């Protein structure tokens, strides 16, 4: 469920902020020495790349805080609550992973989520923002 929520939020943002161009989603295995018969201790990197509006350098750390959307014009034009990325960050941190981004205003953004699948399968913490649950 956690990976699903991460993907839903990141892809939804990419779709919302990309009027033209493309959105690419990829998942790659970060370790080559892992056994092909188990996912235990396998690191993966999820990336969602878009050719959307991008994010100004000064705003890139702020957008991971609840209710932040860059600036008033963005909130006015695109709507939303500003919770999506803070939810993703919380889920990723619960799984002992990390989230980062590379972005340039007017050219698009790429969000990277690095997690160990062991922490996904064993994570039993009830995150308050899971899909379908009330906050």
Fold and architecture overview:
The protein is of the alpha+beta class and 135 residues long. It has a single domain (2-122), classed as Histidine kinase-like ATPase, C-terminal domain (Heat Shock Protein 90). Helices cover 30% and strands 23% of the residues. Strands 1-2-4-3 form a 4-stranded antiparallel beta sheet. A hairpin with a 3-residue loop joins strand 3 and strand 4. Helix 1 runs antiparallel to helix 3. The longest helix is centred in the N-terminal third of the chain and has 16 residues, at 2-17. The radius of gyration is 15 Å and the shape is globular. Mean pLDDT is 80; it is low at 126-135.
CATH fold descriptor: Heat Shock Protein 90
Shape: globular
* CATH A-level architecture: 2-Layer Sandwich
Portion in helices: 25-40%
Radius of gyration: 15 Å
CATH class: Alpha Beta
- The CATH superfamily turns out to be Histidine kinase-like ATPase, C-terminal domain
Count of alpha/pi helices: 4
Biggest sheet strand order reads 1-2-4-3
The parts where pLDDT drops under 50 for at least 5 residues are 126-135
Q: What is the straight-line distance between the termini?
A: 16 Å
Series of secondary-structure elements, N-terminal to C-terminal: HEEHHEEH
Largest sheet: 4 strands, antiparallel
| Domains (count) | 1
Average pLDDT, all residues: 80
Number of strands: 4
């Amino acid at each position: 469920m956690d990976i699903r929520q991460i993907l839903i939020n990141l892809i939804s943002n990419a779709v919302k902020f990309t009027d033209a161009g493309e959105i690419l989603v990829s998942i790659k295995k970060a370790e080559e020495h892992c056994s092909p018969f188990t996912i235990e201790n396998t690191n993966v990197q999820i990336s969602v790349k878009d050719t959307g509006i991008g994010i100004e350098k000064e705003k890139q750390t702020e957008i991971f805080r609840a209710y932040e959307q860059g600036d008033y014009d963005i909130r006015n034009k695109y709507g939303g609550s500003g919770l999506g990325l803070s939810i993703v960050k919380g889920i990723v941190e619960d799984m002992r992973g990390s989230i980062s981004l590379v972005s340039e205003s007017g050219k698009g953004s790429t969000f990277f989520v690095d997690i160990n699948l062991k922490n996904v399968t064993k994570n039993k913490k009830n995150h308050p923002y899971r899909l379908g649950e009330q906050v």
